[in-house]
Amino acid sequence: MLNRYPLWKYLLILIVIVVGLIYALPNLFPEDPAIQISSAQSDSGLDEGQLDEIENALRDDGIDITAIESDGGSVLIRLASAGDQLNARDIASEILNDDYVVAVNQAESTPDWLASLGAAPMNLGLDLRGGVHFLLEVDMDEALTQRLEVHGSAMRELLRDERIRYRDTEIEDRRISLVFADEGDRDQARQLIRQEFDEFDYSTEDEGRAARLVMTLTDESVDEIQDYAIEQNLTTLRNRVNELGVAEPLVQRQGPNRIVVELPGVQDTAAAKRIVGATAELEFRLEASPDASDSDTETFEFRNEEGRSAELSRDVIITGDNVSNANRSFDENGRPQVNIDLDGTGGTLMNRATRSNIGSNMAVLFIEHNSEMRTVMEDGEEVEERVNTTERGIISLATIQSALGNSFRITGLESSTEAEELALLLRSGSLAAPIYFAQERTIGPSLGAENIERGIMSVQIGLLLVVLFMLVRYKVFGIIANLALGINLALLVAAMSILGATLTLPGIAGIVLTLGMAVDANVLIFERIREELRNGMSAQQAIHAGYERAVSSIVDANLTTLLVAVILFSIGTGPVKGFAVTLSLGILTSMFTALLVSRAMVNLSHGGKPLKKLWI
Fold first, then answer.
1. How far is CA 489 from CA 11, 431, 519, 558, in A?
2. Which residue among 192, 316, 507, 581 is least packed, with the fewest CB closer than 10 Å?
């Protein structure tokens, strides 16, 4: 019989629609603006007195509170307006001391029964949800210096193993220079080093009786080091952002030495900047022996003990690059510490160094690169100048009791927060070169709400115009097309929610385009039915022929568009990817609703009935 589906096909379509509606529903329950208060030192939460004081202060300032929720050591205060978030955070921070962290947050409002099914609303992009945007600049000169310091340390160890005496090591620009007592030692060292390090151009200089060996990085080596610095920093920043738990962040390269980081939903710029921009590195060094020469030692202050210093060997045992895992914990006295696991290479180097130095002291050197803008006078005018500084300090100096292996701990940290952040930085990997903030800006939640409102309005206007056109043009069949269009929109939203896709303003444009394309498929089908009716076919035959003969045109048109969307996703970045994802999912859902859902509704309303006239 014409225009009838078997029962299993109706049931399959019904199941898809019901599942789609369920997983699209959470988007009707948007996240509530909130502030979250948690302890920075332990798992203890706020007492009732502090919480009452904060609540009263917020209400006195005219801030509406919708709910207060406590979960272990954390308190979540839901607010009525997103515009009150930053003000509420500042008020709570003034009342509480440094033992508590107050952060802007977005609290889910999905009903429990939907959450139990794994349903959750779509992630919103930076332009809709608000967040922070950072433009970071990689210090390429420091990347070269760091690589040269590593090479210099390896060269010194190589010379000591071969008992070749040298006087001094200098690193400047792209060069490493070693001073020897005579030309014989220099030539022997040159031959030995050249076998291990082929990325240098070698030259010699005479300085009276002494002889100098100068090693300069080749242009190809410089390019390789700088490319590695960018790629390694990208990987490290992505790991750090993942540790922050930000949904759909953007971390991408921009130009030869810059990186863009966008964190949707993050309003606490200071906290995000502290984690993302942290350039902390760790070096493990032995304390210098009393008879060590000045050229082999460096003196560093302790970070947490003013006036105390120690002389350390220039040679580095391992760095943070050798850390495979790190977690914060507390020692037997309740003081914070970081438990560290090393990779195979790091464990071997640590064991070799500590096994032969039992009874000596080993230091953990903390290195931090900072940048600040200062106003200086230039040609009688005030100009902003970026000043980069590097701070090095000892955080731990302990006696080696026994040979260490792949696991050990770092103590001497000031607070639990410092230990947690240090563990996070070590887990995510160290930076290949320092990064500095060239630009930062915060997109407030109120601006995001305005974008959402305008985006929804654009979808509503587009949907209304399409609905009116279909009703006027195709009458009863226009009603069927509009119902299928609504189902298509629900399925698209459900698919994006299930896949965890991020909705952005370009994504909303993709939704509007999808609605138009979905109608285009129905127009092809309905015009084909009209044509068959004009050719003298019966109503049932015309419906059957209209759907069957329009399929190839619909599939061809949608497949070519889908191919373009895939290409956009593969080569595009940021907003372009958001548009491509929405468009791709919309094409799939529109084909399903146009070819199956609308056909099922036509079958149920017109199939198997004697029809003298079609209202189309």
1. 20, 44, 12, 17
2. 192
